[in-house]
Structures are given as C-alpha cells and as structure tokens.
Amino acid sequence: MPGKIRHGHAKNANPSRTYNSWISMIRRCTKPNRPEWKYYGGRGITVCETWMKFDNFLLDMGDRPPGTTLERRNNELGYDPSNCRWASMAEQSFNKRSNRIFTVNGIEFSAKELSEIFHIHINTVWSRLHRGWSAEDAFCVALIQPRH
Questions:
Q1: For residue 118, which of 103, 146, 139 has the smallest C-alpha distance?
Q2: CA distance 47 to 77
Q3: What is the per-residue pLDDT across 72-92, written as a single tens digit (0 to 9) for each?
Q4: What is residue 4's three-state secondary structure?
Q5: Which residues of 134-148 are buried (b: 16+ CB within 10 A; e: fewer)?
Q6: What distance in Å separates the CA atoms of residue 129 and residue 148, rounded to the nearest whole number?
Q7: At CB < 8 A and 24+ separation, what contacts does 110-118 make?
Q8: Helix crossing, 54-61 with 17-30: angle to 10°?
C-alpha cells in the first residue's frame, strides 16, 4: 500500500516488545471480552485517538527499553503522551492504586520505601497499620524504643 509506514515491529511470528505493549494497551481499553478490561476500559480508561495507530504510539514513546513496561503516571487518566512513560517494575509499584503513599518532610514515599529506610519489615508495617497505629508510629517506633 503506497504511503504506509513499515516499522518492522509487528512481525507475525515475533512482534517487538514495543508492539506487544501497544496491542495490550489497546485490548485492555477497548475489548470488553478481555479479563483485564474491567480494570481499564470498564473504568473509563481510554487510549487517545492518535495512539490507536501504532506508528503514532512509536513516534511518541520510542522503543520500549529492556526491563520496562508502559505506565500511566496518573492511574485515573487514560493513555496519552502526557500521561505515559516506560517504567521499571520497581517504579511502577510506587504508582499502583493499592499503594499507600506517605509524606515525610514534604517528600512522598511508598510504604515499601519507608520500610527499607527505617529497616522494618514491610509485613510488620502493614500489621501495625491494620491494628490502627498511626503511620508515624508504624515506621518510627523501633527508632525510639530504648535498648536494653
């Protein structure tokens, strides 16, 4: 077909990581028969019109770097260039809807990050929070207890 861009990413037998990310994004937002649709399209998460064509997605995002997946910076918004980036799993874990974010001295941290900073196992932190402890106590109590 004249004028059609050939990007080489959608080879039938071996599509690229970038193409796989794009097609997964399209499916989870537009195909109600997909199991993951309820968390995306079913919640109103959309793909911008421009990105319905792979060539435009590739132009905006570039090739997917190894060890990354497509992340929406704001999980309440859809897929578009201003809300998406390639991110590692560690980076994405900070942006999960189920994650709790705590602000310490004006800086946001995930519970996992604070548990590492204060050397307290994350399960101990969650247990304390579920028992009604304040966030400050859940993370800092070990620092203020006297040593014997």
A1: 139
A2: 10
A3: 988 889 999 999 999 988 777
A4: coil
A5: ebeebbeeeeeeeee
A6: 26
A7: 114/139, 115/139, 118/142, 118/143
A8: 120
